[in-house]
Structures are given as structure tokens and as C-alpha cells.
Amino acid sequence: MSGGALPLAIVASSLVPGLVIFALPERAVAARSALNLAGALLKIGLLVLMMYGVFHGRSYELRVPLVPGLDFVLHADALSLMFVNLSAVLWLATTVYAIAYLERSPNRSRFFGFFCLCVTATVGLAMAGNLLTFLVFYEMLTLTTYPLVVHRGTEAARRAGRSYLAHTLAGGMLLLAGTVWLYAEAGTLDFTRRGFLAGLPIDPRVLVAIFVLLIAGVGVKSALVPLHGWLPRAMVAPAPVSALLHAVAVVKAGAFGIVRIVYDVYGIEFAAGLGVTLPLAVLAATTILYGSLRALFQDDIKRRLAFSTISQISYITLGIAIAGPVATVGGLLHLVHQGFMKITLFFCAGNLAETLGVHKVADLDGTGRRAPVTMAAFTVAALGMIGLPPTAGFISKWYLGIGALQADHGWVVAVLIGSALLNAAYFLPLLRRIWFAPPPARWPAERPHPGRAVSLALVLPPFLTALAVLAWGLFASAPGLPLHWVKFIAAWEYAP
Amino acid sequence: MTVWPGALPCCVALPLAGAVLAFLLPRRVVAVGLCAALATAAGSALVVANVTAGGALRYAIGGWGAPLGIELAADGLSALMLAATAAVGLAVSVHARDYLLAAPAAPKAFWPLWLFLWSALNALFLSADLFNVYVTLELMGLSAVALVALAGGAAALAAAMRYLLVSLLGSLGWLLGVSLLYHATGTLDLELMAARAPHGLALAVPFGAMTAGLLLKTGLFPFHAWLPPAHGSAPAPVSALLSALVIKASFYLLLRLWFALPPHGDGLALLLGVLGAAAALWGSVQALRQRRLKLLVAYSTVAQLGYLFLAFPLGTELAWRGAVYLALSHALAKGAMFLAAGCVTSRGGDDDIGRLDRVAQGMPLTLAAFALAGISLAGLPPSGGFVGKWLLLQAAFEQGQYQWAVVLLAGGLLTAAYVFRVIGHAFMQSPGAAVRGAPGTMQWAALLLAFGAVALGFLAPWAAPLLDGVVP
Amino acid sequence: MSSAPLYAAAGVALFLIGLHALVWQRHLVRKIIAVNVMGSGASLLLVALGHAGPGATDPVPQAMVITGIVVAVSATGLALSLTLRLARASGQVELPRPRDDDR
Predict the structure, then answer these.
(1) A235-277 pLDDT, tens per residue?
(2) C100 lies in a domain?
(3) Cβ contacts of residue C19 below 8 Å, gap of 6+?
(4) Distance between CA A211 and CA B82 in Å, rounded?
(5) Using CB atoms within 10 A as the burial measure, which of A55, A290, A313, B287 is most buried?
(6) C17 in a domain, yes or no?
(7) How many domains, chain B?
(8) Is residue B412 part of a domain?
(9) Domain count, chain C
(10) Which residue of B lies nearest to A70 if distances are taken between CA atoms?
């Protein structure tokens, strides 16, 4: 395919099914599932094609004028490919899971329609070639995830949706302000390796102000303290939505935005020179500790996972804010690894809620025996969150620690260790309950299933993602795996 | 393609003929009305195509040139306004056909009045001289007032009466200004007048009178008191026409006046900007407080008009382009929003926002239309509203006038707040059975118009060259 | 003609008197009369300005005034019929005060 068609096709592979699904009647389960899966598989296929092309030196770019003077750009570079890969693979897993999870609920066509649109926005955002295109898809992500958050239609869902919108639209407004201001000062918004601001004659105070606006704008979605308020409240959404929001789409989009802004707009050295990276690192560290602390006191499993997410995403920000290739590797690697680990945790939490009615930590006793595969996956992911080898979590935290030492930021290592201890403090008790506590006489709301405790379509996705967590940890250095990819990106970003 | 200036009088004559015919044939009024609507839209499309291909057009009616004859002129800006009018006009015509089925007597009055209004709008956008504009302003005002009064009932009649008095006052201001300007420059043609522009008081007094008159007609804060009752109590297709098109006509005239005879000094521009900012913020706050959907949309109009006036203190080419683009997007989006509200109330339902959940279950297309229109109004991408807002923001940042940027951004958030207030209610699980939906044609008319507002977000590169040379 | 400025001033005065009455009078028929007075004032101003220059009288303002009279007649007709219907529907010949909340 020619240069611009492939990125467009990748975006369209979820846009078109989404629009068609809106028109399907509620009863058309087979057609809807077929469309969903076909779209997901097609996306992965096209992605493989694109990676093959990039590997052989081809470049893919789509440029269309959008606003007088500025283009809408879809561009495939190493960083965008990594994020698109993550999104596409996890979308396939979530699609399989969601089809089973929502088996008898109302409004499925509406749900899956917006589900597809949400992934379209994520993929478009990943392949954005300039800040304007990023902004367009960023806002589109807000609009397409809102119906998913309020899907259940209850009063709690409506309030959560309102909080979500208030935060994300305000963030979008800040991002818009920063973007327009930047364009007015710099004359371009194209993502450039090592940034495009270094040589321009712009007042440093203006640059710092713009940086604050931009980071605040994307910081809302990446749940930087104190902009994180929407995330715990959004847990009223169904489990597939939480899985998608917390592993793939929304929070990762925010983190990805920070990566793009620091590396491809400002450039890491220029940003460090401006003095904005250290405050960002401190903010990220604060978020890491705050999220872990709050997680300790949550009774509801999903809320505990939510605060864990708030904490874990800031590892990425921390790795980005510390200048240095090794820290970068750690941060970007965690973007991928945390995605797989968190999605596993949410899949398992969803299984427990759906089939056994278990929502609270106190009800976890003995679930290991009742749903062994699910809880084994949960255990692997939880150990990864703590950062124990041989899970993927260990690899990314290791790189972060080394990178912090190399950049003379010893205090970061203290933060990492402190956070790991806190993670252990709120995950290990869960594991103890799961495996070593006797099960209760009756589960809170058990759904009778013939044979297995949980159906295959609900068990397979977390099983596979947990397997990936182990694989990324054990075989980290193998070519083609995330570590190899991320090292390639870091080398490219830091090359003179 | 061959350029045919004769398309210009067609745009005025076709709806006029249609109106007369509709009045004379009351039993076939709907068929006549729809045919006339299609023909007028086709004529407008022809003019747009001609202008895009061949540049500005001029046509002297009867072969008599100015000053005693009447000339019609179309440049890029007129073409864009004609196109927006045609799009909204077609959608409203299709929508009204079903909407008015509930009141059997209404179509006989609606179609002739609506076609007169369309004729006046087209003539206004195509007028080359200022007195002709006065006539079209009056025709437009009278038809609009009569359309508002169609609904009957004390509220609608009072709103119509207030609107009539305000409209007449505005036109008289325009007439006064035209008289003084004619005396000072000896011509009524806007281009010639620009070349012979007077100075000092001889310009300030008529300019002030005309501006005041146009502000009254546009409904800028604080001259907006007539707008919410009129737009809120008229039948939904009429509200769509008023908010989308009639208000844009007076704003268009203000732009033309400003381009031809720019005032010296910054005072008036700054005043307009401040009033615009006040309108944007106050109107949004009022919209948030409303319980009725149509009143919410009417106050939204008051707020959105405020953004258009932010271009005056900025004054650069980018700012004017942004304002024009915002005006076009607002026309399509607001039209779609009122048509969606019309779908909600069409089966005798009320438009209480708290009870929208029952309505939304049965009318997903209407909800989608409202949501897409709201996205354009809030300036969220991808939409025409986003492009307009971007251009205005860029103009503000380039000049270091951050206060207008803050107004634009805050206003966008407030707009999103009241749009999502409506949509949020629609996603709730409703306990009762769903209300039966409005006819498909009505919902599709609203939805297609909303798609148009979103599509404008991608059409900017095509529309931009049309404004070259028109915008200073 | 030397009396042209006097007529022009009279026209402006009529316009302003009509404006004052339009804003402050409450009865609708009086408001309509006020609009007509304003229109007459504007027409008077137009014709007077046409006479103001040296040489032959300019015919264009007179053409404008004739058009203006036609427009004023139609507007007055609509206004009066609206007033009648409003009076029948609400029993009042005055406009209710505009309020900024919904009813």
C-alpha cells in the first residue's frame, strides 16, 4: 500500500465496524461479535504489514490539510508503532472478554459501537504526527469513552460520568490552549526527533508556561495528582471498560502524550535545560507514593486497583522526566508491561464480580480454589506490580532504578523501593486471602455455571495476558519483544 | 464551466415565486413548498459553484445599473452564506413537513412565510447596495415575526410582538445611517462608498446608528432580551431558522460594514469584544439553569453569538476567518439542535430536560444529532466549531491578547457543560416504557445537518480560498 | 434651499421623539405610532438631505422614501394585527416584562 493508505486503514479498521455496529439491532449477537473480532484481527494484520514495511526502510505518512496552515498527520515511527501494537493486541483480548462479560446486558450495540470508536481514537492518537492531530484524537477519546463510563445508566454512573467529563474536558481545554499558543510562537507542531523548540527565539518563561499547560492537559488523563479524581469514580463502569481505560486507552494516552511532549516537542535535553523536568519528576514521584498509600485503605477491589493504576502510570512519567537513555527505557517499557499486568488484574476482578459477586477484599477468601486459573493469573500480575522477578514488572523497575542512579537521582530509587514496599503491602494480603484462607459457605452472588466456575471466554484473556507478563519477564532480551523495541526507540531518541 | 450570472436573480426569484404560488394554492401547499425549496437550494449551489470557479459575480436586474437600478453581487463570503442557508433551509423544509402535520392549519401559513424569508435571506446576501439591504432586512424581519407568531398562544404572540418592535427599531437605525452615509458619499454601493469614506463625525454617527441597529437584530448582549422568548416559543423548525440564519444575516451585514468602512480607533472594537465576552459567559450560565430544552438551546444561541464578536478586537485576517467559520458552523449546528428538539416535542411530548431519558430510548438518531451538534458548538474536534475556535485562538495568541483566549476556552467548557447535561440525562436507564419516536425523515434531517456541522471541520481548506480578498 | 437644514433637524427631532416614545410608552398601539413617527422622521431627513446640495434636487432619496413608506405600511399592518391577536389571547395590550428564567 502507498504511504498514507496504511495508517488510514489501521484507523479505519475499528472506525468502520464501530459505525456499522451502531446500526445493528440488539439481537444480532453473532453479527456484532463477528464484526468486532474481524476488526480486531484486521487491525493486527495491517499492523504486521506496516511493521514489516518500516523494518525494511519504508516510511508511512498521511498528510491532509485541516486548518489553514496546519495539517492532520498520521505517521508511523517506532514509538507510535509500539503504542499501536499494545492497543491492538489488548483490544483483541478485551473484545473477547467483553463479548462474554456483557452476555445478557442491555444496550450492547451502543456499547460495542463506542468501544470500537474508543480504540479508533487511541490508535489515531498513537500515530499522530503532530500535536494538532494528537489533540483531535485526544478529545475524541474523551467523547467516545464517556458513553462507556455511563453505560450502566444508574445515578452513580451518571455522576461518575459527570466527574470524568469535567476533568477530561478541562484537561482538553488546557491542552488546546498550550497547543495553539505553541503554534503561535513556534510556527510548527510536527513531532520531531529531539524536539523542535531548541533553536527558536522564544522567551523561556513562555516556554515554561506552555509546558505547564500541555502537561496539565495530558496529566488529567494520566492521573497525575491532583488531577486524578475522576479515575476511582469511573470504577462504576463495567469491568471491560475499566480494563480498557486503565490498561490501554485513556491513562496510556495521557502518558503517551507526556512522552511525545517531552521528547518530540521540547526534546529531553532542552526541557531539562529549561528546568521543567525536575518538577515533573517530583510530581510523578508524589503521585506514585500517594496512589500506593490510598490503595492500602480501599475495601473495594476495583477501587484498590484504580489507585494502583494512578500510582503505576506515574512510573512512566518518572522514567521520562529523568533524563537518560536507561531511565527512558524503563519508563517506556513500563508503559507496555503495566498495560498487560493491569488488564490481567481487571479481567480477574471482573470475573470474580460477574460469576461470584465478589466486589470487596474481604470476600476474596478461598477464591483460589474456586477459580484457580483466574486467580493464578491474578497472582502473576500482582507479583509483577510489586516488581518481583521473573515478572515483567521487575524488568521495567530495574531499568528505572538503574537509570535514576545513572542520572544522579538517588532519591528516585528510594521512591521506587518505598512504592514497591507499599505495593507489597496492599497486594500480598490479597494473595494470602486468595490462596490460604478458607472459602465462605456461600458466595455473595453466585451465578450457576455447569462445570467450570468461569466460562472459557472469560478465563482465556487473563490467562494469556498473564502468560505474556511472565514471558516479557523471563525472555526480556529476546528480539521482537518489548524490551528490544524500547531500547531501539531510546537509542533513536538520544542519538546525536 | 461556463459562468452564468443569471443564477443570482434565480436565488431570489425562485423562493419568491414559490411563496406566491404556495399562498395561491393552499391545498397543495406542501408540495409547492418542497419543490420551491429544492429549486432554491439548487440555485444556491449553482451560485456557489460559479463563484468557486470564476470569482465574484455581478448582475444588474433588467439591465439597469446602479444607482437607480438594483444590482446583485456574489463574492466568496456571500457564496458561503448562501450555501449555509441552502443546507439549513433544505433540512428545515424536510423536517417541517412532518412537524406541522400535528396542526392542520399551520402549513398554509408556514410555507409562504418561510419561502418569503428564504427569498429575503438570499437577497440580503446578494445585495450590492445599502438601501436594497434595508428592504431585504425588513422583509426578513416581517416574515420571521409572522413565523414566530404561528404557534399562537399568548407567549408566542408576545414574543413575536417584542421581536417585531426590536426588528423595526433596528431597521430604522440602519435607514438613518444609510441616509447620512448617502449624503456624505453620494453613493449607495458599498464598494464605492469604501473608496469615498468620510471622516470623523460624518462617519461615526451613521456607523454608530447602523451598528446599534444591527446589534439589536443580532441579539448581542445586552440587546438580547427578545431572543430567548422568540426562539424558545416558536415552533421548532422556525426556531432553527431564526437561530441559524436570521441572526447570521445581521452579523454578515456588520462584517461587510466593518470591512468597507473600518472605524478609526479601537474603542468600538473593544466594546464589541467586551459585550461578546459577556454574552458568551452569561448566556452559557443561563443555559445551564434552564429546565426546558428549547430555552436552553435559545440561550446557547445568545452565548455562541458572543464568540463571533471576539473577532472585532482582534481584527486580523485570521480572526475574521475564524468568525466567519464559527458563524457557518453555528448555523448548521444550531439548526440541527433545534430540529432535534423538534423531534423530541413532535409527538406532543414536552421538552423538560429531566424527562429526556424516556425520549432518548426511542430516538437514538435524535440524540446523536444533538450530541454531534453540541460537539461543534463546544468547539471539540473534529468539527467546524473547532476550526473556527482554533483560528480565533491563534489570532488571540499571536497578538498577545490572552484575555480573549481565556474567554473562548472558558466558554467552550461551559458549552460542553450544558450540552452534556442534556446528553447525560439521555443515557440514564428509564423506568417506564420508551416514548414512540418521531418520524424517520425528521430525525434524519436533524442528523444530516449535524453531520454537516462536523464535516465543516474537514472542509476548511476548500472554503478558505473563497475568503481571499474579501476579508481584510 | 436654505430651509433644508431646518427640515433635516425636524426629521432628527421626530426620530428622537419617536425613539423615546417607543422605549417608554407601554401601550402597544402607542409603540406602533412611535415607530411610524420614527419612520416619518427618517424619511423627512432623507428628503431634506436630498435638497441640501447645490444644483438640482437629488431624486434618489425620494425614491428611497417611497420604498420606505411602502415598507412602513406593511410593517404597521402586521404590527396592528399582531396587537389585536395578542389582546384577544392575553386580554392585555401591553407586553409582559421580559424575564431571564423559564416559565
Answers:
(1) 888 888 888 877 778 999 999 999 999 988 888 888 888 888 8
(2) no
(3) B169, C34, C38
(4) 43
(5) A313
(6) yes
(7) 1
(8) yes
(9) 1
(10) B461
For residues B426-452, average pLDDT: 81
Helices vs. strands in chain B: H and E counts, helices first: 20, 2
User: Is B15 part of a structural domain of the chain?
Assistant: no
Q: What is the CATH number of the domain that holds C86?
A: 1.10.287.3510
Interface A-B, measured as beta-carbon pairs within 8 A, has a size of 79
Structural domain that includes position C79:
4-90
Distance from CA of C88 to the nearest CA of B (A): 9
Residue B57: its H or E element: strand B57-60
Q: Do B157 and C45 touch (CB under 8 A)?
A: no
| Peptide bond between residue A226 and the one before it cis (omega within 30 degrees of 0) | yes
- Across the interface, whether the CB atoms of B381 and A152 are under 8 A apart is answered no
Q: State the cell numbers at B389.
A: 475556535
Residue type (1 letter), B195: A
> What does DSSP assign to residue A74?
E
Closest Cα partner for B219 from B161, B145, B146, B299?
B299
Q: Does A71 touch chain B (CB under 8 A)?
A: no
Name every residue whose Cβ is closer than 8 Å to that of residue B357 and which is 6 or more positions away in sequence. Answer: B425, B426, B427, B428, B429, B430
A47 class by beta-carbon count within 10 Å (0-12 exposed, 13-18 middle, 19+ buried): buried
Q: Please, which residues bridge with residue A300 across strands?
A: A360
How far is Cα of residue B421 from the mean position of the Cα atoms in its chain? Answer: 24
Shortest CA gap C4–chain B (Å): 13
Q: What stretches of A48-158 adopt beta strand conformation (E)?
A: 61-67, 70-75
Give the domain range for residue B449: 284-293+302-465
CA distances from B358 to A157, B245, B364, B441, B446 (A): 17, 31, 11, 21, 19
Closest alpha carbon to C75 in C16, C26, C34, C45: C34
pLDDT in tens, A346-389: 999 988 888 888 888 888 888 888 888 888 899 999 998 888 88
In a domain, B73, yes or no: no
Q: Is there a cis peptide before residue A389, judged by omega within 30 degrees of 0?
A: no
Burial degree of B455 (CB within 10 A; 0-12, 13-18, 19+): middle
Contacts B164 to C, Cβ<8 Å: 75, 78-79, 82
Reading the block at residue C89, the C-alpha cell is 389571547
Per-residue pLDDT at B240 exceeds 90? yes
The one-letter amino acid code at A213 reads: L
Of A136, A172, A184, the CB nearest to B394: A184
> What is the four-CA torsion angle of B287, B293, B298, B303, rounded to 10 degrees?
30
B68 to C63: CB separation less than 8 angstroms, yes or no: yes
Domain-embedded: residue B70: no
- Best of A66, A137, A168 to substitute, by most chain B Cβ atoms within 10 angstroms, is A66
CA pair distance B111, B141, nearest whole angstrom: 16
Half-sphere exposure of C10 (CA within 13 A, CB side): 10
By Cβ distance, the residue of C52, C63, C98 closest to B229 is C98
Query: What DSSP character marks residue A61?
Result: E
Do the domain assignments include residue C98? no
Picking from A173, A124, A167, the residue whose alpha carbon sits closest to that of residue A146 is: A167
